[in-house]
Design goal:
The complex is a heterodimer of chains A (124) and B (373). Chain A is 40% helix and 19% strand. With 124 residues, chain A is α/β, with parallel strands linked by helices. In chain A, strands 2-1-3-4-5 form a five-stranded parallel beta sheet, with helices on both faces. The longest helix of chain A has 11 residues. Chain A is globular and about 30 Å long. Chain B is α+β, with helices and mostly antiparallel strands and 373 residues long. Helices cover 51% and strands 23% of the residues of chain B. Chain B has a five-stranded antiparallel beta sheet. In chain B, strand 11 and strand 12 form a beta hairpin. Chain B is elongated. Classes of the chains: A alpha/beta (124), B alpha+beta (373).
Chain lengths: 124, 373
């Protein structure tokens, strides 16, 4: 399973990278710059996507819209990672097409299971 | 004989003269006294007049310089007054037009027959560069046979809204800025513990535990700030779900055991929770339990025990945190001011239905700071 993981915080990316290194069934592609991520989204589809919400443009919700706007990736699972605990934000993310919302701080030891569950729910 | 008659007449004359003199002296005395009293009254009146004038000037100064707009008027136009702030908030040219604008705005509100009626309107008033939200608080007094009186207080809600938005943005920013490094911190500690704790010497494991506990406490503090903000704005979300009492107790103990250990305090659970379930918000109940347990732990002497009692009583489930710390100040005690009674904080849950009751922080309203001692 190929996962595109985007976060402008290098420490969070490294944390996720270390967390997933023992999950042999998950190949993570870790990208710090969201503009670079947008180019990757336009290329070969990934099995699932994980975006931080608050990044310099394009933001996580911009990347979500990009994934949903392309026929090849419209139905792929997308999880948005956010520090906001607002119920309104959660509803907005689901309305925008997010498959799951992950709150910071998340448990890195469970990240692999979360991504696998996400892929299974979406038929991946 | 003629002499006797003369003497009689002279004596009578002298007597009458003396009497008249006495009357005149008495009249002079009374007049003088009254003149003095009149003079004193006039002086007092003058002092009263000056005092009234001074108070009137002070009230006028307060009236004109309060932050809010104030206006008052009678229905029949016989009386009206508005301060400069009211004129400015209504964007009127003078007091008279300000009153007219208020009269129009208020007239649209449904009138009741009550003698005393209070209500609030939120109106948009166009100003030079923008429109402002003005809160208009009205008290209307009706008396039979007399025109109704309106007392109006105006507040500029735009400034309040800006402050509110600024505070929300600040808290949101702080929340994000704290959670992001917390994610790396807690996540790293958790992975280090899970993967490499067995390779560490004893002191290394203890250091990891210490780091993990404090990272968790930092997260609790960040969450508490958001909870307080949500409470303040009446938008705290509660999502009840059916949980077993045993589950609630186990999670509360697991979350707070490390903190207890660091203080040399033991948590002991008592009571029977088999088969007892309640409808509560999972996150909120643990927030409450953590606040109560951490307070009890913090104020317990080292080596002591904090007891968590869970039980079902009739149609209620009870959670009680009991400690041997110094206790609440008498005026702050939610239970009793008697020092001989055990110090505890009690939560009671109705077993059927989603509503649960607990002692709110208002119980500690007499200068106390809530459940924390």
């Amino acid at each position: 399973m190929r996962a595109l993981i985007v976060d402008d915080e290098p420490d969070i990316l490294e944390l996720m990278s270390i967390a997933l290194e023992l999950d042999e069934d998950i190949e993570g592609v870790f990208v710090e710059r969201s503009a670079e991520a947008a180019e990757l989204i336009r290329g070969e589809p990934f099995d699932l996507y994980l975006f931080d919400m608050m990044m310099p443009p394009p933001t996580g919700t911009d990347l979500l819209a990009l994934v949903r706007g392309r026929p090849e990736t419209a139905s792929r699972p997308v999880a948005i990672c956010t520090a906001s605990t607002s119920e309104t934000v959660r509803e907005q993310l689901f309305s925008a097409g997010a498959t799951e919302v992950i709150y910071k701080p998340f448990k890195p030891m469970t990240l692999g299971n979360v991504l696998r569950t996400l892929a299974r729910r979406s038929g991946g | 004989m003629a002499l006797a008659g003369f003497n009689r007449r002279t004596a009578t004359f002298l007597a009458v003269t003396a009497l008249l003199t006495a009357v005149a002296i008495w009249a002079l005395y009374v007049a003088s006294k009254r003149a003095r009293q009149l003079s004193l009254s006039l002086e007092q009146s003058e002092r009263d007049r000056r005092q009234i004038a001074r108070q009137s000037r002070e009230q006028e100064a307060i009236f004109e310089n309060v932050r809010d707009g104030i206006a008052a008027f009678a229905d029949d136009g016989s009386f009206s007054k508005a301060n400069a702030r009211a004129v400015a908030l209504m964007n009127a040219v003078d007091e008279k037009s300000c009153i007219e604008l208020l009269r129009d705005r208020i007239a649209s509100h449904d009138s009741t027959e009550a003698e005393l009626d209070s209500f609030e309107l939120l109106e948009q008033v166009q100003h030079a560069n923008d429109h402002r939200d003005i809160r208009i608080g009205v008290t209307r007094i009706k008396e039979v046979g007399r025109p109704s009186l309106h007392y109006v207080v105006l507040s500029d809600m735009s400034e309040e809204r800006k402050l509110f938005e600024a505070r929300e943005n600040f808290i949101s920013s702080v929340n994000h800025e704290l959670r992001t490094p917390l994610t790396s911190l807690k996540g790293s500690i958790e992975m280090l513990t899970a993967r490499y704790a067995h390779d560490l010497p004893g002191s290394g494991s203890r250091l990891l535990d210490l780091a993990a506990r404090n990272a968790e406490r930092l997260l609790v503090l960040v969450n508490d700030v958001l909870t307080l903000q949500a409470l303040d704005e009446n938008r705290l979300s509660i999502r009840p779900e059916r949980l077993s009492m045993g589950e609630i107790v186990d999670e509360a103990v697991a979350t707070n055991e490390g903190y207890a250990t660091s203080h040399g305090v033991r948590i002991e659970t008592l009571g029977e929770t088999e088969g007892v379930s309640v409808d509560v918000d999972r996150v909120r109940i643990q927030q409450i339990m953590s606040n109560l347990l951490s307070n009890a732990i913090k104020y317990s002497p080292s080596g002591d025990v904090v007891r968590l009692l869970a039980a079902a009583q009739a149609d209620r489930a009870v959670l009680e945190v009991i400690d041997n710390g110094p206790g609440f100040l008498p005026r702050c005690s939610p239970i009793s001011s008697s020092a001989s009674e055990r110090r505890s904080t009690t939560l009671r849950f109705r077993l059927r239905g989603p509503v649960w009751a607990w002692r709110s922080p208002q119980s500690w309203s007499n200068g106390c700071t809530g459940p924390s001692r």
